[in-house]
Structure formats: C-alpha cells, structure tokens
Input
Amino acid sequence: MTGLSRTTFALMIGVSRQYLADIEKGEANATVGMLERIAGGLGMAVEDLFYDL
Output
C-alpha cells in the first residue's frame, strides 16, 4: 500500500498515530490483536508482516 500517510492508516485501523509510530520504532509492543488490525488494514495476513524476519 503506497501513498497512505501514517496518520490516515492509524485512523483506518483505529489507533493513534503516535502509538503506530512507537510500534514502528520498537518503543511499544503490539498485541496479537493489534497485529491483526495492522495486517487487515494492509490487506495481508499477520504472518506476512514477518515474512523477511
């Protein structure tokens, strides 16, 4: 998904922009439920978030 701002995506999945940024920076831990919301917002499965790890 390109061209989507962090703010727009955060609103789309129902979290604050700051919380999403903190997850990205490793300053907050995402629950399984949050990972499901993030993956769903991106149109992918949760396991796809970890494909390259």
User: Anything to note?
Assistant: The radius of gyration is 11 Å.
